Amino acid sequence: MAQDPAAVRDDAAVQEGIARARALIDAHAHEASGIQALKERMLHMHDDGDEAGDQELQLDWDLYREVPATMEQEEALLLDYFRKLKFIYLELETKLRFLADLQDDPETGQEPQILSTADVTQREHECKRVKQQLVEAKTRVRDLRAEIDRLADAMAEPWAAVERGTGEAHTLLSEITDMELELAKIKAAEGTQGALTTAELEAVCDEQIVTMQTLDDETTHTVHEMEQAKRELNDALRILERLKSERSAAEKHANEAKLGMGRDSGRDWELERLCTKHAAMLETLQAALGITRLAAPTARELHITLAAPAREGQRTLQLQFDEPGGALVDVQLLDAEQAPISMSDALQRYCREAIHTNHAAALVQAVWCTYVA
Questions:
Q1: Confidence at residue 8, expressed as pLDDT on a 0 to 100 scale
Q2: What residue ranges do the domains of the chain occupy?
Q3: Which of 69, 301, 346, 366 is the most exposed place for a label (fewest CB within 10 A)?
């Protein structure tokens, strides 16, 4: 049967590699034996470049002090360097193990292991199978980690609820302990020994319920009184503000009337002359008509007291208006005891005419003339 040309070339390459490895081992056999000699040789070759490598690994701290951002770049470069160094070490270790398998070891008596193409293919398949198992194991680990994270997230809220419940339980336990201590103090103060009976407890509870209801009623009544007092206070404050504004306006008018707007330091001589004239006229009319007293009990009512002859006694004419300064609507004549007096037909006719014409002065004159005639 004809052999595969590719397989023949692979066998030739393997045989050539074996021959080179044996030649290298024989060349350095006087320094050390077996694989240990080859390791020492390669380590020695690596040590020769340590000094140069150390120079390359030296950091320029002055540069990093001025430009701190370059530290991150240097870190990335060092990580890449050590990553490549790891690959180099793995490659070297693989070659050393491969060479150890190709030679005999005098110390252990192990003969060189010659692998055919079929053996290499089998080991490749075994390596692939192991790698596949590793991938599957990593996948299972990731799935388990995701499941653990999911369970942890799902348990977060129940755990928080348990924590809250535990805190509430501790609080209630503390309150119960305080109540037990207070109850023990009450028992010691009242001299009560032992536990209370059911009837006693019911009586105490009923008394406390009645007391609580009484306190609740008193609290409600007090709240209503407070609200009523607040409303009254607000009304009083509004009235006070209105009175303050009215007082300010009245003071302003009083100051204006006192100072005036005329000459001679603000005095209005014309206004003073008119006031004096009207005051004198009012006194003359009062004396002529026998008016002894003028009074206004309300804003719509005017009382005029007349000094009638001795046999008649004092008379009071009561005038009522529809509004302050408005029209005359009613007239009454009162005696000294403030009792109504009947008026004569002529006087009643005068009263009707005075009300119709809104002439209060004519009515006063008519009453005077009637009782002095």
A1: 47
A2: 12-114, 116-194, 198-259, 290-372
A3: 69
